[in-house]
Structure formats: C-alpha cells, structure tokens
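Let us work through a complete example step by step.
Step 1: write down the sequence.
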Amino acid sequence: MSLLKEIESRRSVRRYRDLPVSREQVMEILEAGRLSLSGSNTQPWRFMVITDPQKKSAVVKADNDQEWMLQAPVFIACLADLKSRQHEAPVPENTLETSPDNLVKLVIRDTAIAVSFMILQAEHMGLATCWTGWYDQREMRKALGINDEYYVSGILTVGYGAESPDPRPRLSMEEILLSDDLSAERK
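Step 2: predict the structure and record it as tokens.
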C-alpha cells in the first residue's frame, strides 16, 4: 500500500465541475484530519464546513476576492485552536525554539499536518482541493464568525476538478537530502 500515487497526482485545483460533494464524502475527509498526528496528542485542529452561498461569498471576499473559489461546492475552514496548549508552561528563555510563541507555532504546525492528511484523502477519493491562505486573519475570522482564539490555517476548497494542472517543479532528491546513512553498508 503506497500513498505515492496520491502524492504525485495531487494538484491545487482552481476550476471545479458543477457536481455536488456528499456529506459522507466530506465526513471521510474530516476523519482523515481527525486521525492526524499532533505533538503531545493535543489535536488542536477544528474545522468548519461551509456550503452556504452567502457564507462562501464572505469567505471569498476575505480571501482576497478569489472568485474562482465559488466554483467549489464545499469549503473547509481549517482552524488551529490557540488555547489547546495553554496548559504547557512557557519557557522564559527568548529564543526561536523556546519562546512562548513556539506553542502557537506548534498548534499551527499540527493543524497543517491534519490539513495535509485531508488533502491526500480527498485526492484518494477522486476529489480535488486547493489550500488557500491569502487573507488577513482578522478579516477571515470576521467572515467565519469566530473569535481570536483560533488561527485560520487555511481554507480548503473541495470538489470535482475541472482541470488537471501540470505538475509543479520539485527539487531533486540530491538537492534535499543532506545526509544518507542508509547507503552505507551496515555491519
């Protein structure tokens, strides 16, 4: 069982066919996010499924008026619950790794992992997605009707793709692999 097929075929799709996505399909995508991994099992992700045309229009307006989004029958707002790690005492030292802001970064990271799982599940199901994030947090929170205890990690458009974009260039393995102990003979 390999996920490489879905990983290789996944594209950010910005044109959708006029076909509905069922509640069951959406719930299966959300289940992939729910089962995702997170540091200390905090599970900071929260999701909002948006199909109402007025709510979708408000989200599009906040997302830099990207009108193409309206073609997708479903939006999923992917939120990081900023309070999910409040029980952890911040470290007083002010470095990138140990500042109190690092807890916020961990919550955002974990939510991003969940969104990635959801995108791969949608691809596996024959659905297309695009992760959008071209918005001001305050404006998007207002469009979603949420307060500042949530960080909007992204708006995921979901539907049946009406385009098949070419693959984007990727760095070669040689460019990204800094060390490879696996190639050395083991004794």
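Step 3: interpret the result. Residues 7-183 form a domain with the NADH Oxidase fold (CATH 3.40.109.10).
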